[in-house]
Design goal:
The chain has 127 residues and is mainly β. The protein has one domain. 0% of the residues lie in helices and 51% in strands. The protein has a five-stranded antiparallel β-sheet with strand order 3-1-10-5-6, with no helix packed on it. A three-stranded antiparallel β-sheet has the order 2-9-7, with no helix packed on it. β5 and β6 form a beta hairpin. It starts with 10 loop residues before the first strand and ends with a strand. It comes from Halobacillus amylolyticus. This is DUF4183 domain-containing protein. Pfam families: DUF4183.
Length: 127
């Protein structure tokens, strides 16, 4: 019999499920925020989709999350806002209004959308 290279025959398949968690928070400004200043909204100043009070803003999952900010229904540029997760007094959204921009008027709706993704993978190896 001739010499043969003996090797393992292995097969593998991986299934990955990605589950998004989309949470929206709403706020209506009570006063004008002038150009060149910062509008800071505490966690307790937001309300949820069902109208209930918010007491905490969720953590952002490292490398699997992001947030969007809309003012008056317009998506804002990423560099204008700072998101801090946490409970009342800690959790907040800060929006910096450029000095050469327009103010945010009283009664303006602000929508904060937080998206976190949870990945779950399973691998089956057959020999």
């Amino acid at each position: 019999m001739a010499l043969q290279l003996m090797k393992l025959l292995i097969g593998a398949s991986t299934t990955t499920n990605v589950v998004p968690t989309d949470t929206r928070f709403f706020h209506v400004t009570t006063a004008e925020t002038a150009a060149g200043s910062t509008l800071t909204i505490d966690a307790a100043d937001f309300f949820a989709d069902d109208g209930s009070a918010v007491t905490e803003l969720p953590e952002l999952v490292a490398n699997n999350s992001y947030y969007n900010v809309n003012v008056n229904g317009v998506l804002q540029m990423e560099g204008l806002s700072t998101y801090t997760a946490g409970a009342t007094g800690i959790g907040s959204l800060a929006i910096e209004i450029p000095a050469d921009g327009e103010p945010i008027l009283a009664g303006s709706p602000v929508v904060l959308e937080v998206l976190n993704y949870a990945a779950d993978s399973s691998t089956t190896v057959t020999t």
